[in-house]
Design a protein that fits this description.
homotetramer, 345 residues, alpha/beta, Quinone Oxidoreductase, Chain A, domain 1, Rossmann fold, 2 domains, seven-stranded mixed sheet, six-stranded parallel sheet, 19 strands, 28% strand, globular
Chain lengths: 345, 345, 345, 345
């Protein structure tokens, strides 16, 4: 193995990133070195690339970013057990403390001392990445590399949708980014009655239909709330999966939700949101779930079960680039006219 | 309307039944008269016909029996509201008191003063049947008559399977009577990982495959527990739907269940069952649900949602007879070499 | 029985109300006439009395208002069963349609055609009131009249608090109106670890301590969030019961909630609320429940069990007046310096 | 520290045990050495002492047995973090693999490769015991030593009772061994309506009353089912906590359970149990939970919250002995005329 590797580095504050030759990390005690086969660009990576307010407040350059990927285990640190070199793996990107209340009660996804790969520590836009052994997820060799690279966002969709009942329910998904798109396929697979989705980008509306949505609305063209009520004989959606993080979408979603329905909130809003809590939640007797990451590792086991028994998320992957063409790839992601975009390091 | 009608009457204690000409019932206050379009024979009807111990202890001849059916509303009693003559309906066969703790808390299916149509009161093996307005379930005209006639057992399957999580889980269904068969299709529709079923009757094993089972076992030919462990990489079934009511099946089911799994018990055993509670339930930390009838009317709404969005139970209906040929129909039901058997009155 | 009665009537748009002599209502089919023994004034009645925006948009004078009460059944309409004259009763004030999806699935509290007594139909600030037989709740003769008069708000507290786990949890109750105060006693009875409450009115802060709160904060004097974290070793409250309906209280509540905690929202805000959904709900992976009325009739059965086995809400009742002194009573309620205020008609 | 210590050893197959001088264990990597302050005798230890069928099939002498204890950390193995010498601790006695499906999804209590201290590995009837760092539970210095020694059985009670709703419910606890007794106090603390218990031993019936039971029945003297129905106005118990493991108690429990009620099964039966599943579970629509150990570490956090906010289990501890007098202590435990019995090593 070479001592150096290519990596995409957020080298300084401000817009952009650059490709650099850096040292290959060495796995410490309990750590594993993974050779990255494919990485995927998340919306968060777009924020880091563009250097928005959130990125400026959170990221400390220089940092190799990127957190969605799969690869091959190529080196084991001291004390690593139950993992062999050569296996094909994905990685849970939340590195947890293991000893807090949350970690000790099966809620590691909200660990109080969590570190996120590609945000707090060196990420996967690189030829090699170092991760704790606990975060390794072995995957079947026959799962395509590109699918294995997007377990992180697909897991978000699984966590969001399966927190309460989907089967036989009418679902409204606000926002067809990759997680919303994955949720469409998942809800169909889970026996949803009717899957409705909203999205302003035409490319993604088309993709939503490919993923199996019964109806896809452009919220700038139609009255989403009215359409949902029309599609549900005046009842409203049984379920809201909020994946846009836009104040307007959030409020539309809660207006379209039926009494006694439930909602998962995953999309992050740019700031505080003005909400009609009375009509949207209280009078409806609604249940609302905040969704953060993936349950460790319930979500992963469930995802594996689904992907090996008929859930197909492959249409979600629309573009791929060699890592050298990162500028083009990020431009595409920021345009919104894509599904998942893969980088090959 | 004629003042008399044909009806299949359990006329005396002992085996058999006979076709009689009886008065058409008149709907009282809050009651509705339904003209039966199609009725289906339940295993319970087989017990009444054969006059087993249970029947001898519960049934008071003479009684028109039968409780699975659909038909058309032809007459309204005084004070009936929200129901019109001419509508196509199915009927929930548990007539509840409406005022007990259970009825007042959404648990009417376990009402303390329940009466069951065709068991406690005149049933549906007749040209007309009288039912309380609360028990009427309006159905879409485009649902086939035969499917509308079996909402009762399909509802049992829905109640059994949706009491806990199906999606992504490996399911073992012990017993492929009509409810077990419906559960197979339902679990597939609900995104189960692998659906395994056991059944000693060859006709029903073939039907189980038509309904979508991945694997069907003859418990007299193979070691079911071993097969389930093989199919699940040594984990055992995540879910047991017990629909046989045979001591051996119950015990096989719990042995095949994985730790932390869950079970619905629907099949009624002929008497007390010797069970290994320690290994079957306690050490496994299993959850077990007793299933009685259908939730009123949660199960019905859910069933309607499912049947209008892709759940197909039609292969379950394998035979039909004019009511005059009831002897042949019951012989078939008692042989077990059938799915649902329909009688046209 | 006299043909006329005294009643407190919202006689016209604008502030105030007046005592009038009106006809005693006659119970229709399925209805019951109740002689009011004691009525209690709700915050909603205060809004009607003061004629705020909500009242102006909802109430159609002339209207006898009031919805919290107990009394004696004195006359039965035609067809009433299971209720006898002379019994001591409280009344669920949501009159439901009985036939919608919600009513048929044990969710009558969110019935789509609900009518609320004292808002949509003649209320209980009168000597007699007419109610549907379904809404009658028989109570033990040995429950004090004043307690029986406040089953409505106590039921709100029961519904809010028991929707998820209380035992062993640290609870924050924002707002010590009567429902918040009842929730304090309830959480103590339910084995809460530490019950913390916020309230700006000094009288109610003192009452909160009488009801059993471990800590009571004046949000104008201390930093509530900081105090809650201090009391919980930096974890935050496991549970938020939001009963103030003030934007500031709602936001404080969610900031003070721990990761993985849960919240009931009962307090109605005066309009849309600007909320930090990201930090308050999503990153925390919180569960949020909208609470509307009482579950019919789960909440009532639970309340009866609690009030007959040790839950003491009597300290909550602080003042009582003959109905003639309504002006004084309303002034007191509007000042906030009281618990529950009783009117004797 | 001395190189040898006193330990109570199951030295050979057959009845009895003997005190021996053995080497003090050395903590390996990730392990901790605990100096035992107090140990408690479990029924399981009684089985080992008496050498019943279960013991003969499971235990491999020579073995230091015992698994309920508290003590002081006196030595840290290599790589131990977050634990300091000198702290006062209890220990979860299930040593888990950490990598199986169960361990990775917050269900370590049913780990597929679990080892139990005092059964599979050297136990706590000794001056020192070696445990994995993960199993250490730090406790407040002001919790009495004897209470700290019985966190294991108290945790069983917490796990059994809090798996579903207790508040406002009528509870039947079959069997007043230490776990049943702890459950009595817990149910009272949790706001149960009426706590009823059954027990054949008079000493324990008296203790049950001290722990707070409203009614205690001797099943040899009264018809338990009839008594429970009498105490609950004919409804039956809302909740069954089965802690006897006797076939008769199990069947009585399920007969006394109300429709729609729930049951925790903790007591281990001596073999298969003949059960009326139809009437006991299915027709009732009951929910049944198998209870194994304690949830790791949800149960521990909950137990700590309860013991520091009013739950008092101290009356449960009735006897204590120096370890030298083990023969007398075991005789007492086997007689059943005691609560918890403490050994001081």
């Amino acid at each position: 193995m070479s001592r150096t590797m290519k990596a995409l580095v957020k080298h300084k504050e401000g817009q952009g990133a650059q490709l650099e030759e850096v040292f290959v990390p060495r796995p410490g005690r309990g750590e594993v070195l993974v050779k990255v086969k494919a990485a995927a660009i998340c919306g968060t990576d777009g924020h880091i690339y563009e250097w928005d307010d959130w990125a400026a407040s959170r990221i400390k350059p220089p940092l190799i970013f990127g957190h969605e990927f799969c690869g091959e285990v190529v080196e084991l640190g001291e004390g690593v057990e139950n993992i062999e070199e050569g296996i094909f793996v994905s990685v849970e990107g939340h590195f947890t403390c293991g000893v807090c209340f949350f970690c000790r009660t099966g809620q590691g996804h909200i660990c109080q001392d969590v570190e996120i790969i590609g945000v707090d520590t060196a990420g996967c836009f690189a030829q090699y990445v170092r991760v704790p052994q606990e975060n390794i997820w072995k995957i079947h060799e026959d799962i395509p590399v590109e699918v294995a690279a997007i377990f992180d966002p697909v897991g978000n969709a699984v966590h969001s949708a399966l927190v309460d009942e989907i089967i036989g329910n009418n679902i409204l998904i606000t926002g067809c980014g990759p997680i919303g798109l994955a949720a469409i396929a998942l809800c169909r697979h889970a026996g949803a009655r009717k899957v409705m989705a909203t999205e302003i980008n035409e490319f993604r509306r088309n993709l939503a239909q490919k993923m199996g949505a019964h109806r896809v609305f452009d919220p700038r063209q139609v009255d989403v709330v009215q359409e949902v009520f029309k599609e549900t004989q005046g009842m409203g959606a049984d379920v809201l999966l909020e994946m846009a993080g836009k104040p307007q979408a959030i409020n539309q979603g809660f207006r379209a939700l039926r009494k006694g329905g439930w909602a998962s909130l995953l999309g992050l809003a740019p700031g505080p949101v003005e909400m009609d809590i009375n009509d949207g939640i209280i009078f409806k007797g609604a249940r609302v779930y905040g969704i953060n990451g993936r349950r460790m590792y319930d979500t992963w086991y469930k995802m594996e079960a689904l992907l090996t028994s008929g859930l197909d998320v492959q249409p979600l992957i629309t573009h791929s680039f060699p890592m050298e063409d990162f500028a083009e790839a990020f431009e595409l992601v920021l345009s919104g006219s894509c599904g998942k975009v893969i980088l090959y390091p």
